[in-house]
Design a protein that fits this description.
single chain, alpha+beta, Vanillyl-alcohol Oxidase, Chain A, domain 3, five-stranded antiparallel β-sheet
């Protein structure tokens, strides 16, 4: 067991104690790969979707570099009744939002994929304090352009390897209950999108929307279902600095003090490690421009990782899973937490090393990170840890959004009860990654944004390479998932989660009818629909159940065959939430 701990700790320390050096890292592969005569295939950055693991074949791919070219591409597709979807140069969305196939036949006959990889211009208006970016513009390029003009973007997701169009359309966010809040779409003041039209109007048209327009709330978080977003204008603020300190506390009061923490600190978050009874409070506020410090947020999980190291860690984790070695998994979790604490979770006081708190730096260097995402292709030593080409990390990412905040309090209490019943070791799986990351977003004007101030909880955990393979503590994580989305009515993040998290999602958004009306108005023929939207928007999640469907999150079990009775996993009630149905390991079917 000590060897397991030390291996994991050594790898993490090697990663976090070196200066960021893009030349050492292989950039992510492009999401679209085409083969002469065989068409093209779309995949996400993880190499597998959450709803299924099938490839997404497409008949044609367009790479427009201007709005006029987007308009022409949509018009051609509209004239031929093709299915159309949009993908960026990054494709970090976990559900199959971007796949234009309707799931029938080979899916390649009437589909068009529009890539925004070349639609990436950025223009800052310093006088108006706005930045207008093409939909495919990388978040990092937008932030850097603003900072170069003495301005800052107040909100951003923690991972910077995303496009502006993608992050706005899926409701991506940072963390804040202050001002306009932590969701980027709530800082949008205008956008343009191309929508289908009839033949008399040239088969496609451009819509320009500003805050206050009737269709603006529907277009903010549109999931790619209304048309193709081409440009987004965001409000900016005068450039500012931030000061970050991580405070480690016992988790005994997290359910009672999370709201006060969010109210007290502008960019607060909390990382909860339930197996270790520890909560890490991020004390994160603005600092004066003349405050000393040129810090950088280079989160340890988003740094380039030696390919051999991530392959070794994945092999170790898989071995522990197969042998049901809970203690070994807990040793990995302890090593992860120890390494993060030692190196300030990737914060660097001078851009190179962590030397102590507080870490002070400009907003553009502190608000987001992802150094593994922008690297030249000539070095093959390192990559993002989840790059599917190198058999590294492979995990589920569940994100539950609770409102009113009191529901999060009850969720925490139920998870603590589950910890008491199942044992703290049963929760080590989430602590191997990043525990429960707790963030805060404000009520939004977007129809598919949050209807009131909310608490967002992210948790990652092991995903087997074979969808028919059960996981260690399978029942515990299925119960946590159902506690969140069923018992406490949490809403799923649109760009994350297993398919089961979206069951009943329409009833969780009070303005769903307004969004649906806008969709019928802008895309009456369903050009931008796909199999995923048919299931989720159409309310068909989990209706078709096959053998083993619960193991990969495609259904909630109601019969043993939905688990894996051949491997000793049977459908059983939850330990705390008795209405939950989970796949639990048992040496006998009668237990």
């Amino acid at each position: 067991m000590p060897a397991t701990f030390l291996l994991h700790l050594l790898v993490l320390l090697l990663l976090s104690c070196r200066a960021p050096s893009p030349a050492f890292s292989l950039p992510p592969r492009p999401p679209v790969r085409c083969h002469s005569g065989d068409g093209c295939v779309l995949s996400n950055a993880y190499g597998a979707w959450s709803s299924d693991r099938d490839d997404c074949p497409v008949a044609a791919v367009a790479y427009p570099s201007s709005e006029a070219e987007v308009l022409a591409a949509v018009a051609r597709a509209s004239a031929t009744s093709a299915r159309v979807k949009v993908v960026s140069a990054f494709a970090h969305t976990i559900p199959k939002l971007a796949c234009p196939s309707n799931g029938g036949g080979n899916g390649t006959t009437t589909t068009l994929l529009i890539s925004t990889a070349r639609l990436d211009a950025v223009e800052v208006d310093a006088a108006a304090r706005t930045v207008t970016a093409d939909a495919g513009a990388p978040l990092r390029a937008v932030i850097d352009a603003a900072e170069a003009r003495g301005l800052s973007l107040a909100a951003a997701p923690y991972w910077e390897g995303v496009s502006i169009g993608g992050l706005v359309s899926t409701g991506s966010h940072g963390s804040s209950w202050w001002g306009r809040g932590g969701a980027v779409h709530d800082h949008v003041v205008g956008l343009r999108l191309v929508v289908p039209a009839e033949e008399g109007d040239g088969w496609a048209r451009v819509l320009s929307l500003r805050r206050g327009d009737e269709l603006f709330p529907a277009a903010l978080v549109s999931l790619g279902l209304l048309g193709v977003v081409t440009k987004i204008t965001l409000s900016l603020e005068p450039r500012f600095k931030r000061s970050i300190t991580y405070e480690y506390r016992d988790d005994s009061t997290i359910q009672d003090d999370f709201a006060a923490h969010a109210s007290r600190h502008e960019f607060a978050d909390i990382t909860w490690y339930p197996s270790q009874h520890t909560a890490v409070y991020r004390v994160d506020d603005r600092a004066p421009l003349d405050a000393s410090g040129d810090g950088v947020n280079d989160f340890i999980g988003f740094q380039a990782t030696p390919i051999a190291a991530t392959a070794a860690l994945r092999a170790l984790e898989t071995s522990l899973e197969r042998s049901k070695n809970v203690k070994g998994e807990c040793a990995m979790a302890s090593a992860e937490a120890a390494a993060k604490r030692l190196v300030g979770n990737g914060l660097k006081n001078n851009g190179v090393l962590f030397t102590g708190y507080p870490v002070v730096g400009y907003q553009g260097k502190m608000q987001t990170s992802g150094s593994c995402a922008h690297s030249p292709a000539y070095d093959l030593l390192s990559a993002c840890g989840w790059d599917p080409r190198f058999h590294g990390l492979f995990f589920y990412e569940s994100t539950a959004i609770f409102s009113p905040p009191a529901r999060f309090r009850e969720f925490v209490l139920h998870v603590k009860r589950l910890r008491d019943v199942a044992g703290a070791d049963a929760l080590c799986g989430v602590d191997v990654y990043n525990g429960f990351l707790v963030r805060f977003v404000k009520a939004s004007v977007a129809h598919l944004g949050q209807p009131e101030d909310s608490v967002v909880v992210d948790f990652n955990y092991y995903r087997a390479s074979d969808p028919a393979t059960p996981r260690l503590s399978e029942d515990v994580w299925e119960e946590v998932e159902q506690l969140a989305f069923v018992k406490h009515g949490a809403r799923p993040h649109w760009a994350k989660n297993r398919l089961v998290a979206f069951d009943g999602v329409r009833g969780k958004y009070p303005r769903w009818a307004q969004f649906a009306a806008a969709k019928r108005r802008l895309d009456p023929r369903g050009m931008f629909d796909n199999k995923w939207s048919d299931e989720v928007v159409g309310g068909e999640v989990g209706r078709s159940k096959g053998d083993g469907c619960a193991l990969d999150g495609r259904c909630v079990c109601s019969e043993d065959r939905h688990c894996s009775p051949g491997q000793g996993y049977y459908c059983r009630p939850g330990l705390v939430f008795s209405e939950a149905r989970v796949c639990r390991y048992s040496v006998s079917q009668n237990q």
